[in-house]
């Protein structure tokens, strides 16, 4: 099952869709143009059902196979939203929307799934139904959660679900995956330390929240180094620190810090939240200040089911060959809201090579259109492998 010849024929057309999406990036749930174009194309392909507005602005398209003896439905998901980044690629199809850019390749994911949709609607060489899930707001909005809560999996009786992301640094034509945790849970926190401000020349008359905050930042590092089992990964990062001080010689009254916690294990995730709050309260109280933590739960960990990872591997190896497929890539501390779908249904998430380009979320990132036949072949191949016609 190598790259399907049909996708070589369709490559110029799929590339044109991808570059159109790239030139017109949209953020979070405000993907109205993209979603409308996706729905228009799915109807033109002859999809049996196309429903818009699922999970606010998501699109679901259904293709029935030549038969439905199995009664099963396989879900395939692609994300549609872009990022608030100023593009620096210089491409002739670069973003026409200032301050917005497809810097994560979601335009490529959407185009590859559309290519697979066109092929599957033409051939229908499977027994059952494929449910195409075009999702908004992956970049921080939780569109995957919205689609699950809107009943996208229950309404169309999806029994297993698969997704894909491009991977800069992995050669085009290669795939990478692993069973179990693949991407981390991502929580955010805001810490507010309130002391007693004053003149910088009289620190003894103050309760300096800057010094206290420095102690808190150091204390938080013990969560990874001394509290959590060293064989279980966790990252605690304080990324911003601001104060209400108006000048270089004024000790502030309030300091605010913001950061993130990344983890894979649910127990570690809960422990990290508990210890962040305890460390902030304890250190602040020791110095006579108050410390408040506002916790923002983020995406859960993306966890591939072992059996479904095996199915995904088999299809990837059939397309790219054994040597071009990594079956135990190291887990990544980035987060992905396909995790909500994997919590609701068994399935797997795989990386497809994007070659030597800038990393995702970088203004010079560039999706490699040569990856399209591989990604589209994998999407289509998952359907034909999991819903065999014969």
Question: What is this structure's SSE topology?
Answer:
Elements: H1 5-23, H2 32-45, E1 49-54, E2 58-64, E3 73-79, H3 106-123, E4 129-135, H4 143-149, H5 152-155, E5 158-167, E6 175-176, E7 180-183, E8 185-194, E9 198-199, H6 209-220, H7 222-227, E10 234-243, E11 250-251, E12 254-263, H8 266-286, E13 290-296, E14 302-304, H9 306-320, E15 325-326, H10 339-344, E16 347-353, H11 372-386
Parallel strand pairs: 3-4, 3-5, 5-16, 6-15
Antiparallel strand pairs: 1-2, 2-4, 6-16, 7-14, 8-12, 8-13, 9-11, 10-12
How does this structure look, described?
- The protein has 390 residues and is of the alpha/beta class.
- The chain has 11 helices and 16 strands.
- It has helices at residues 5-23, 32-45, 106-123, 143-149, 152-155, 209-220, 222-227, 266-286, 306-320, 339-344, 372-386, and strands spanning 49-54, 58-64, 73-79, 129-135, 158-167, 175-176, 180-183, 185-194, 198-199, 234-243, 250-251, 254-263, 290-296, 302-304, 325-326, 347-353.
- The strands form 4 sheets. An 8-stranded mixed sheet has the order 1-2-4-3-5-16-6-15, sandwiched between helices. Strands 10-12-8-13 form a 4-stranded antiparallel sheet. Strands 7-14 form a two-stranded antiparallel ribbon.
- Helix 3 links the parallel strand 3 (73-79) and strand 4 (129-135).
């Amino acid at each position: 099952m190598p790259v399907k010849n049909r996708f070589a024929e369709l490559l110029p057309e799929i590339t044109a869709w991808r570059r159109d999406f790239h030139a017109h990036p949209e953020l979070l749930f405000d993907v109205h143009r993209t979603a409308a174009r996706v729905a228009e194309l799915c109807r033109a392909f002859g999809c049996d059902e196309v429903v818009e507005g699922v999970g606010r602005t998501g699109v679901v398209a259904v293709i029935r196979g030549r038969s439905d003896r199995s009664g099963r439905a396989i879900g395939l998901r692609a994300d549609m939203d872009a990022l608030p980044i100023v593009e620096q690629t210089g491409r002739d199809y670069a973003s026409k929307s200032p301050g917005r850019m497809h810097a994560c390749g979601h335009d490529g994911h959407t185009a590859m799934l559309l290519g697979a949709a066109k092929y599957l609607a033409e051939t229908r060489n499977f027994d059952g139904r494929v449910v195409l899930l075009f999702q908004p707001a992956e970049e921080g909005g939780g569109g995957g959660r919205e689609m699950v809560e809107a009943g996208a999996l229950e309404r169309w009786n999806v029994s297993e679900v698969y997704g894909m992301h491009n991977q800069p640094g992995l050669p085009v034509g290669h795939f990478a995956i692993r069973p179990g945790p693949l991407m981390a849970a991502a929580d955010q926190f805001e810490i507010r330390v309130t002391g007693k401000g004053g003149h910088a020349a009289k620190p003894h008359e103050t309760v300096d929240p800057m010094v206290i905050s420095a102690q808190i930042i150091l204390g938080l590092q013990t969560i990874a180094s001394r509290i959590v089992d060293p064989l279980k990964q966790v990252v605690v990062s304080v990324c911003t620190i601001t104060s209400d001080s108006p000048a270089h010689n004024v000790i502030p009254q309030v300091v605010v810090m913001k950061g993130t916690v990344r983890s894979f294990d649910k127990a570690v995730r809960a422990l990290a939240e508990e210890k962040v709050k305890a460390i902030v309260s304890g250190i602040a109280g020791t110095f006579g200040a108050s410390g408040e933590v506002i916790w923002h739960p983020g995406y859960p960990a993306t966890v591939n089911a072992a059996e479904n990872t095996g199915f995904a591997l088999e299809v990837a190896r059939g397309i790219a060959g054994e040597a071009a497929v990594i079956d135990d890539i190291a887990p990544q501390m980035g987060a992905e809201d396909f995790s909500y779908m994997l919590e609701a249904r068994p399935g797997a998430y795989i990386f497809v090579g994007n070659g030597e380009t800038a990393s995702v979320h970088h203004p010079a990132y560039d999706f490699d259109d040569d990856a399209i036949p591989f990604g589209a072949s994998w999407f289509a191949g998952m359907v034909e492998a999991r819903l065999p016609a014969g």
